[in-house]
Sequence to fold (134 residues):
Amino acid sequence: MPKKTLLPLFLFSLLTGLLLAGCQAGEIKAGLTENGDTIELQTGQVLVISLDSNPTTGYSWTVIHVDPAILAQQGEPEYQQTPSQETLVGAGGTETYRFKAVGTGQTILTLGYWRSFEPDVAPINTYTLQVNIQ
Fold:
């Protein structure tokens, strides 16, 4: 093949490979509408779950169940107050968890919305996902 043909072919192959790698390594976002759903991930992808929360009431989301050999929590959850309500005392916001797909298999991820100082009281809400990792 002439050299003029090889360079575009090489660049096309390189860009295609980078795009495919980016698709597998990205973040998959989930929220309240995905509660009860099944999520498919590739090893290395990060599952980002954002749920309404209001810690001023004492309630927050807590991981109840997950297999950490398959889906590992990445750091502590982050809370952000709703921007339009930042000046309102006691206003709610969003709590965000990140989990990295570290192994292949299946796990049930369950979060509970409860007060940590009331360990014997059931959560007032639960969030569950079936997570399949290839």
About this structure: Helices lie at 3-25. The chain has a mean pLDDT of 86.
